[in-house]
Specification:
Oligomer: single chain
Number of helices: 4
Shape: globular
Helix content: 10-25%
Bound molecules: S-adenosylmethionine
CATH topology: Rossmann fold
Largest sheet: 8 strands, mixed
Number of domains: 1
Order of helices and strands: EHEHEEEHEHEE
Strand order of the largest sheet: 1-7-8-6-5-2-3-4
Structural class: alpha/beta
Radius of gyration: 15 Å
Length: about 200
């Protein structure tokens, strides 16, 4: 059972003209969740880098790692149009605290990067979300606070299209690992905190 929580939002400074594929209110949730843990941030699914840019400029003392794949041909057909081709990571290129990896998450060495939050917004098929989530979970567990967030989580128990596997993967993860995963109210974001939140 995935409960819904209303995240209390501190003001978010708008530093980018738009926030990529995340609507403003969802960016605000991601931003405020990150604020709970501090540390460095890992985004899976860079696209044009607008969310990456807003995160990195807003917290210039932290490092933002962002992972995508080199070409639209490497993306599942249903999501191919989300890969911006030669514009991959365009808006976050040149920022000194952003580190781009365009070779898939499996090839990204996540160890010792001080990552305290992972935002999973890459390949949305169930098995891919599952795999990315397990890799993210492997980064937690050192006693420090840790958050995993997923985008495109459908709270209605069904998914709009058969290939969109975020909901099924998240519900399966919650059951398999006994994780208290929550849905952020009025968003398509699910999230897990590694600690008991009052
Ligand atoms: C919804 S977009 C990401 C949007 C971005 N996070 C934002 O907020 O603007 C999904 C991205 O995931 C990427 N992607 C697809 N399959 C992937 C994979 N196996 N590993 C990493 N990224 C992948 C796509 O190329 C696309 O850029």
């Amino acid at each position: 059972m995935i409960e819904t929580e209303e995240i209390s939002l501190k003001p978010v400074v708008r530093l980018a003209p738009q926030i990529g594929m995340l609507p403003d209110h969802e960016f605000a949730v991601i931003w405020n969740l990150w604020d709970e843990v501090g540390g460095n941030f890992l985004e899976i699914g860079t696209s044009s880098g607008l969310t990456t840019r807003a995160l990195a400029i807003g917290r210039s003392w932290a490092q933002v790692f962002t992972v995508d794949v080199r070409s639209p041909n490497d993306v599942h057909e249903h999501q191919r149009n989300e890969h911006p081709g030669s514009q991959l990571g365009y808006f976050s290129l040149g920022l000194s605290n952003v580190f781009h990896f365009a070779n898939g998450f499996e090839n990204f060495d996540v160890r010792k990067k001080g990552i305290r939050m992972v935002f999973i917004d890459g390949d949305h098929r169930e098995e891919s979300v599952w795999r990315d989530s397990e890799s993210a979970l492997a980064l937690s567990g050192d006693g420090e606070r840790f958050i995993i967030a997923w985008h495109d989580y459908e709270d209605n128990g069904r998914d709009d299209c058969s290939w969109l596997g975020v909901g099924p993967a998240v519900r399966r993860l919650a059951a398999r690992y006994g994780l208290a995963i929550k849905h952020a109210k009025d968003t398509r974001i699910a999230f897990w905190r590694s600690w008991q939140h009052a």
